[in-house]
Amino acid sequence: MVLRGEERVMVIEVAGVRAPYGRAAESALSVCREYADQALYHHSLRSYFFGAAWARTRGLEFDAELLFVSAALHDLALTPAFDSHTLPFEEAGGQLARVFTAGLGWPAERRDRAAELIVLHMRDDVDPARDPESRLLQVGTSADVSGAGLDAFDPAFTGALVTAYPRLGFAADFVHRFRDQAKRKPDCAAARLVAGDWPRRALANPLERF
Predict the structure, then answer these.
(1) 154 contact partners, CB below 8 Å, separation of at least 6
(2) Is the separation of the CB atoms in 104 and 124 below 8 Å?
(3) d(Cα 126, Cα 138) in Å, to the nearest integer?
(4) Contacts (Cβ under 8 Å, ≥6 apart) of 3
(5) Distance CA 123, CA 74 (A)
(6) pTM above the 0.85 mark?
(7) pLDDT tens digits for 143-199?
């Protein structure tokens, strides 16, 4: 099933895994589509679907709207419009999420949760029993960026997801974005990843061969 916008098509179901539909999801998608290039836009959506698929196979209940909105916004602070020269990109992205969700009329606690998901996706693993949405964004982004945990997914699902949202040279572009963050903000989490073997793993992600 697809939802047709002015410029791009959003696939709202991939191999039986659905994206939420409603004002919040539509608005977040619209902002992501406007400010992210297509490779980053596709990454944001693949991150949601990977996380949602991981939850489905484990029977894990989660707030799909919260996860989708956070996934759509989580990397926008890597774009020129929202880049911060002082804050790590995930913290700047969390602030963006607070502002965006205020416009949706979300209460303060829910706005804080959207920001928390975005900040925590660059931190140590979260216990899914304590905070399922944060763990799902971690799972989704890790699988899509570096291939971590890909063996947990049905290859048919993974193939369908990359067909729906092609990579478009995502890995090389994303490594470049992180190296830029590391150069300007040497104490950030991205800098620690760049200093290790993360660039190699990202570039060697099996998803890049689809």
Answers:
(1) 15, 53
(2) no
(3) 8
(4) 9, 10, 11, 12, 21
(5) 13
(6) yes
(7) 999 999 999 999 999 999 999 999 999 999 999 999 999 999 999 999 999 999 999
